[in-house]
Amino acid sequence: MKRAHSLKTSEEIIFVDSTSSCDAENHAITFMLTPCAAGAVPVGIFITKGQTEECYKQGFNLIMDIMKESACNGKETPTTFITDDSEAEINAMKKIWPSSSNFLCIFHVGQAVWRWLWDSKNGIPNENRRQLMSYFQSILYAESPACAKEAYLNAIGYTGSCIPTYPLWNAYLIQIWNRKELWCLAFRDESVKGHNTNNFSEVAIRIFKDEVLSRVREYNVITF
Q1: Range of the domain at 156
Q2: Considering only CA atoms, which of 128, 126, 132, 125 is closest in space to residue 110?
């Protein structure tokens, strides 16, 4: 991992993701990776007793204490983080690296919207879910901030469709639009280096679960 911090990419972009319920005491493991020619390599991995902001701060501080001035190719602060939508994780990173930018993994953002549409308590009929998801995707993949705003207004006004108005959907869309800089591609620049997901972290966690945790009885009891 120390060699990974000598990579140029470690000062540019880092992917962060966590997995919980790793044992009977619900410890969490957080992976920090940076892209390379082989995919991505870890620049830090730490275990915490939970997924609170304080737990994340302790983990991030531990990584920095170990790496000291050699962290992030000597810069000590990466330009960009890509994470899932964990408020505790993001807040902790802002306090440790206040000058870094944070963007959300668009895969997880889209997944969250799709789950919201399928949640029965939100009252969206099955036949209209795809249309509403299409509205959201037009915002997500807009080519410019102006196009994103136009797509958002079209989504709020149900432009081009004959489906009923859903107040809960409108309220939800307004809520996520207020955080558009975190997930809408129109508000990203070259600092993300073409990376809009943290799927490298997802792969690392999947391998860790399959190759390591699957051999641990405490984990197996929870999983199976």
Answers
A1: 106-182
A2: 132
